[in-house]
Design a protein that fits this description.
Protein name: Anthranilate 3-monooxygenase (FAD) / 4-hydroxyphenylacetate 3-monooxygenase
InterPro entries: Acyl-CoA_Oxase/DH_mid-dom_sf (IPR046373), AcylCo_DH-like_C (IPR036250), AcylCoA_DH/oxidase_NM_dom_sf (IPR009100), HpaB/PvcC/4-BUDH (IPR004925), HpaB/PvcC/4-BUDH_C (IPR024719), HpaB/PvcC/4-BUDH_N (IPR024674)
Bound molecules: flavin-adenine dinucleotide
Structural class: alpha+beta
Radius of gyration: 25 Å
CATH superfamily of the largest domain: Butyryl-CoA Dehydrogenase, subunit A, domain 2
Keywords: FAD, Flavoprotein, Monooxygenase, Oxidoreductase
Strand order of the largest sheet: 2-1-10-11-7-6
GO molecular function, one term: monooxygenase activity
Pfam family, one: HpaB
């Protein structure tokens, strides 16, 4: 099949019956569920872009293995040019969703590609794990699948290790091995897009301690595997709120979920890591990470640019962007965007070829983006809230605008500066409120803080890694020069 269309994706959803729970309801008709309908359409549009002559050659290419056309996410980059092809895909899809859908299919597709191209990591521990990850990559590539993933143990008692929790199987762990595979039980979070994905891949986040061996699991199963329960968070939109009133929330909601595994059988050929502390603690950093961090950076830049443009348009529409305090906030936002843009260019220009022949962007620059965005994006939202102020809350609804008794007042009292009609100002402010005030917008802030792990511990890890490679020779040189100067003055 190689590249799917949007309809292929939707048809796939129709063939499955995963156990999805939403607001106390078991969802049986996913594609017609009002909460999921529009997000499914948005993902379908991304798949359709793969067939659109305007984008096809930009975001897809020919697979060396099969001769079939596949998404650029599945082509292992060997050069700078290949990295740029990857970037074109990330950018094209991020632009189509304004960077608001962080877990579009490219994110995990590049992760799995990168895990497979780092098969040597798995081989170090178990030959069949290496074969499994390569075969899984081929399966995802050749069927152009959309995956969700869950790395994190549920948030119970973080002061205790997985094996010290109240129940042995609160955190997802292996119960027993059978001739067919491993039986797993317990929960994982936070699986974004789980209800409308094709499959789920589990891989562990570092932090396991001796005694945690059974929890060091990495595997993949179809989303409708028996025993797998998907419990969704409360939706930010109900699928019934008009697009006019909620131009972003009505389209781009990524549902998040907890996954509960009730004695799920994971076949042996889908096991990538099992019962190994060292592999469990290192698989995340040493396999898929470098490539999906690139996707994160490109997508994050798009989202920040969008917020910056919304802030500027809001300020302009009510004539406040001539005030110094507003200009400094808008200027700060432009500089944040330019910082991320520059870091991304540096990451790509300073790429290296790893031991597997894969081109990888500079990890230090990408992780610096990862460190800056959790501060820069919430600040962008704060700036929109500060500049839009009370007006953000007061937009009338589309129904008010259409009502003959109100339309005159709205035209008179809701217009902006000279040349900005009420209709246009209301539309803009609704978009700004979706992004900065609604539950939808608050989730987007939380996403930027936490989507790839706790930024506090990530920054700590970043510095530890940095220290391992850094030599601080300037300090040595300065100290040596001081010694020389001392000797000279003593003579
Ligand atoms: C919107 C959204 C979407 C997401 N999507 C996904 C997804 O698709 N797949 C996925 O796997 N994950 C996803 N994540 C989850 C993300 O990986 C986690 O939220 C993140 O790793 C942080 O873990 P936590 O939420 O359990 O916080 P915790 O680890 O419980 O941290 C809570 C607080 O305690 C502090 N803390 C906890 N433990 C320590 C410690 N040992 N040392 C120091 N401080 C500590 C943290 O700094 C933090 O302030 C998503 C998160 C969000 C918000």
């Amino acid at each position: 099949m190689a590249i799917r269309t949007g309809q292929d994706y939707i048809n796939g959803l129709k063939t499955r019956q995963p156990e999805v729970w939403l607001e106390g309801r078991r969802i049986t008709d996913l594609v017609n569920e009002p909460n999921f309908k529009q997000p499914i359409q948005e993902i379908a549009k991304l798949y359709d872009m793969q067939h659109d002559p305007n984008y096809k050659d930009k975001i897809t290419g020919i697979c060396e293995d099969t001769g079939e056309r596949v998404s650029n996410a599945f082509i292992v980059p060997k050069s700078y040019e290949d990295l740029m092809k990857r970037r074109a895909l990330y950018e094209t899809w991020a632009e189509a969703t304004f960077g608001l859908m962080g877990r579009s299919p490219d994110f995990l597709n590049v992760t799995v590609t990168s895990m497979a191209s780092n098969a040597k990591f798995f081989e170090r521990y178990n030959q069949s794990w290496a074969e499994n990850i390569v075969n899984y990559y081929k399966h995802v590539r050749d069927n152009d699948l959309f995956l969700t993933h869950a790395l994190i143990n549920p948030q119970n008692d973080r002061s205790k290790a997985a094996h010290e929790q109240k129940d042995k199987f609160t955190h997802l762990g292996a119960v027993e091995e059978t001739s067919e595979g491993i039986i797993v039980r317990g929960a994982k979070m936070l699986a974004t897009f789980a209800p409308i994905a094709d499959e789920v891949i589990i891989y562990p986040f570092p932090g396991f301690k001796p005694g945690d061996e059974r929890y060091t699991l990495s595997f993949a199963v179809p989303i409708d595997t028996p025993g797998l329960r998907i419990v969704c968070r409360e939706p930010a939109q109900n699928g019934k709120r008009p697009v006019f009133d909620h131009p972003l929330a009505s389209r781009f909601e990524e549902m998040d979920a907890v996954l509960i595994f009730n004695d799920v059988l994971v076949p042996w050929n889908r096991v990538f890591v099992h019962n190994n502390l060292e592999a469990g603690n290192t698989v995340y950093a040493q396999t898929g990470l470098s490539q999906n961090t690139h996707q994160n950076g490109v997508r994050g830049l798009t989202k920040l640019r969008f917020a910056q443009q919304v802030a500027s348009r809001v300020a302009d529409s009510i004539g406040v962007d001539g005030f110094l305090n507003v200009q400094t906030q808008l200027g700060e936002l432009v500089q944040s965007v330019e910082t991320i843009r520059a870091l991304l260019r540096t990451a790509e220009n300073e790429y290296s070829i790893n031991e597997n022949g894969e081109a990888v962007p500079s990890f230090t620059s990408l992780e610096t983006i990862r460190g800056i965005l959790p501060k820069a994006y919430p600040r962008a939202i704060e700036i929109i809230q500060t500049i839009g102020a009370g007006g953000l809350l007061l937009s009338p609804t589309g129904c008010d605008l259409e009502h003959p008794e109100l339309s005159g007042d709205i035209a008179k009292y809701y217009g902006g500066r000279e040349g900005v009609e009420a209709y246009d100002r209301v539309r803009l402010f609704k978009l700004a409120w979706d992004l900065s005030g609604e539950a939808f917008g608050q989730r987007l802030v939380q996403y930027e803080r936490y989507y790839s792990g706790d930024p506090v511990r990530k920054l700590g890890m970043f510095y530890s890694n940095y220290k391992k490679k850094a030599s601080f020779t300037m300090v040595d040189r300065a100290l040596e020069q001081n010694e020389t100067e001392k000797n000279v003055s003593m003579n």
